[in-house]
Structure of COF family HAD hydrolase protein:
Amino acid sequence: MKNLVKKAKIYFLDLDGTFIDKVNGYETISEKNILTAKKVNLSKPVIFSTGRGNTEYTMNIAQQVGCEYVVCLNGALVVDKNNKEVYRKEMPKDIVLNVIEEFKKHNMCIYINGIKNMYHSGNFEGVLVKEWSKENPKFNYNDIDNNGPFSKLLVFGLSIEKTEELHKYLSKKYPELAFYLVSNGYTIEVGPNDANKGIANKFVCELLNIDPKDAMHIGDSANDMPTKYHLGYFVCMGSSQEHVKAIAHCVGPDYSNSGLSTVLEELEELK
């Protein structure tokens, strides 16, 4: 990582699996990660670039660090610090509805646009339900608003083998959309083919008059990989899957125990 020290003029940070280190359980963040990001942000912009929506939780983290913008929904949405929308991409409605029907056939749990409402058939027999989702409001598939808009889908419920098989099938059948296999292979995320974290991060760089070649994204998942092709640097966490590590400019420590703070401290020589 020494060859990347002081290279970046702006940092884009993923949340889940990177900044959110679960120090005290799900969605908890170590004080060290918060303080280090806040310190870096005093001299260089720190922007969260996440698959999450612009929810109260997401915006609260951004406010603690002092982010000017937040990239949400894997790059399909950008908001400013006041949660005002400045950029949005949507998926073609007719194609998304066809994809949703594919997920329904497999009795999968569906989330839309980063909102924590689970859509499902109601029959959870054999469905691999994530622990964090058990307390979410649950609705029937029929409650999905077919009028949209649709900027992101997050879907799970199958085994890792069946999820990977479905991911390959959908990616081939619907090239108009972007499909990401995340959460160690148990989750499929769907978004616009012309929107990703790399494109949205580049857009934020332009807003801040920073050359994207001087930007660094730090993440851990497949939805972080496009940033390598739009920004100067991509660093992944040590807990990333091997195909993510394979394209990163550098691999940092595991995200747990303030791993992100360790990366920033080394890159900015804060110790």
About this structure: The longest strand covers residues 177-182. Residues 10-88+195-268 form a domain with the Rossmann fold fold (CATH 3.40.50.1000). The mean pLDDT is 96. Residues 9 and 138 are 43 Å apart (CA to CA).
